[in-house]
Amino acid sequence: MSGNMTAEDGDILHQRQPDQKTCVSACIAMALGKPIEEVIEEFHGEYMARCCRASEYLSKKGMLCREIAMVDNTLMKGCMYILCVPSLNHQGGFHVVLGDTRDGDVTVYDPQKGNEGKKYYSRTGSEDDLAVMCKYFIIEVEILGYHDKPAEKKDDG
To answer: Residue 91 belongs to what domain range?
Structure first.
């Protein structure tokens, strides 16, 4: 996948999950601007074995983030979020999507979008017959930015 966009760039390149168990890896790949194959190779096995959490992997990659695990439909502006939602495609299951509020509005990136015949979450649910409005979620991880991003210089004048 070329033209990777990172949180630092301000744009997110939507990526699809290649199977039913890689939604967390896909959301992390979107947040980091990395190819999903790279994240799956580095993270997915340990995540499925419960040896590494999403927040740990993001921190290792230089992202400042914190686990929240909170039911709250209020997303603060200026962050990205890994959100746990009810699965639209597997009854009784869970799914994760990436929420982005860095431009002031909420944008929802669902790694199921574009997978043939799969329903997916969006901000409004009006894109097509498979889109569903994302109303209820649990905030799992709040992503604040990069650890090593230089501080802004203040003008002394």
So the answer is: 23-146
Walk across the sheet containing 107-109 and list its strands. Answer: 63-71, 138-146, 80-86, 94-100, 107-109
Amino acid 83: pLDDT: 96
Q: Are strands 120-122 and 131-133 parallel, antiparallel or unpaired?
A: parallel
Q: pLDDT digit string (tens) for 46-96?
A: 999 999 999 999 999 999 999 887 776 688 899 999 999 999 999 999 999
For 94-134, what is each residue's pLDDT tens digit?
Answer: 999 999 999 989 999 999 999 999 999 999 999 999 999 99
What type of residue sits at position 63?
Answer: M
- Looking at the domain assignment, is residue 15 inside a domain? no
* Contact between 103 and 78 (Cβ < 8 Å): no
Number of domains in the chain: 1
**CB atoms inside a 10 Å sphere around CB 94:** 12
Structure tokens at 156: 């002394």
